[in-house]
Design goal:
By secondary structure, this protein is mainly beta. The chain is built from two helices and 17 strands. The strands form four sheets. Strands 1, 3, 6, 7 and 9 form a five-stranded antiparallel β-sheet that branches.
Amino acid sequence: MPSPLQSFSRSVNIAKKFDHSTGQGLTILYQPALLNQWDRATTKRYYGFITDLRAKIDIKSVAEAGIPEVDVTSTRAERLTAVRDVEWNSPRKQLDILLKKSDSPLIHICAISLLNRYPYYQVPLLSFLTDNGVFSIGNDTILYAKVTDVGYGGLFNPDEITIYGAVKEEVTVLPDQPREISFAQSYEWAISDTSQMILPPNPHRLQLTLVNQGSNPIWLNYGALAEAGRGIALMPSGGSYEINQTNPYQGAVAAISEGIGSSLSGLEAV
């Protein structure tokens, strides 16, 4: 029977820096990683769950942004308007976040205004992507970022934007398709108090079932020699042991009994 599906996960980090040398082209913020050659999975890539994403903004090449002018008598609307005006009407740069699926064009997700606020400030970016605590990224999806000129140029020295965060990556492993039994050979052995190899190695073995038919205990061992009182014990009159796909073994099997006249039956399937 196939084993159940299994999911494996790992944690990775996002760490991207934008400065005067970056330019205004697209930069990959996050793309699910490729699987290695030993992974057995439904796709070639992991899928990711972004759990944290932040930007440290350090802009010096434009005039310092002012402080919104509000007082205790200002209404909520007036306060929001004042904050908006400072955020979007001050000298600034702009950071754009974009998303691209394998079967869709580039999609603009959000824009973040980059201001000169001494000495620097930080912006939580995850809230721009989702209202939940995690933003899911499919295995065919890429999250991009770019700095856009909105009338004040790109980043100049010593401007610097650092975007960092954490991602939990997962992959679902498919079970192997089991090879079906096509032939079985039955056996019967007389087991004595001297060790004997009852079966040689068999690289095609899928199943081996052994049953103690006698009145004395029998001990089994993986390998060419068995020792009484040690290894796998088969109790008299029906004690059994089976090698199958849950405990595969294709090497030699040896047996020994506590006394003479013991009988062991078996079936080996390939």
